[in-house]
Amino acid sequence: MRIRTLLIYVTTATAAGGLALTTPTASATTASTSPTVAPGGNFDLSVWSLQEPVGSPGSPTTIPPSRLKGANGFQDAYFYTDTRDGAMTFWAPEKGVTTPNSHYARSELREMNRDGSPANWSLSGTHRLDATLRVVSVTSNVCVGQIHLGTGGSSTKPLLELYYRSSGDIVLGTENSPSGGQTPHPVGHVPVGKTWSYTIGVSGGHTIDLTVNGTTTHYPIPSSFNGYKQYFKAGSYNQSSSDSTTKGARVGFYKLTVSHG
User: Fold this and answer.
1) For the segment 241-250, what is each residue's pLDDT rounded down to a tens digit?
2) How many angstroms separate the CA atoms of 19 and 13, rounded?
3) What is the pLDDT of residue 32?
4) How many alpha carbons fall within 13 Å on the CB side of residue 12?
5) Which of 140, 116, 109 is closest to 43 using CA atoms?
6) pTM score
7) 8-22 as b/e, with b when 16 or more CB fall inside 10 Å?
8) 204 burial type by CB count under 10 A (0-12 exposed, 13-18 middle, 19+ buried)
């Protein structure tokens, strides 16, 4: 699949002489995403499984790559192709089934290996998650990308989470240690409904590389994470909960690729 993305940015100088947030003045084109096929017809979903906000309490339904792949692959009310623009769309209401370690519902992809096993990579080397997306609606706050801890210890925390808030602010949350505590880093601002892009990366085993709309920032990885493997996640991980099944976070992706080197 080839996705052609056209974004025009406006940058301003900060008082410190750097560049302020860049925001798009035009949306991404989606000429190669078909609105008439399932998400698996537009995206390589052979390296992802899907968790949805339904199932048994504490045990959300998971859809394997084999069911997601192809133009006739899985889709439903929580994961589908937007028939207007071909976006791979994730819907996570405020009320839904959650994992045992979270109070929030999600419609979210989890990185897998091509042999069907869960991805579980070392911090050494170079790892990238590239996305073009727009937040269609959000009640309060939604996580649209993660690097999550895999094997190597008992922690169920993420290494980082990329949040989009209803104000339009984009915030990176970096975990202080595997035992918890998160530091927020404001990294951009895009109005609700506008298209933007991010790259979440790890390089050299010690550095997080984040690019939002062409502006790159770097963050050190604490040594306490060295023993853990990692994997990517992306989609709509709602960060608010209530008894409402109509309020929530809806996110559409126009590009989603993973690379390791």
Assistant:
1) 999 999 999 9
2) 5
3) 78
4) 6
5) 109
6) 0.88
7) eeeeeeeeeeeeebb
8) exposed
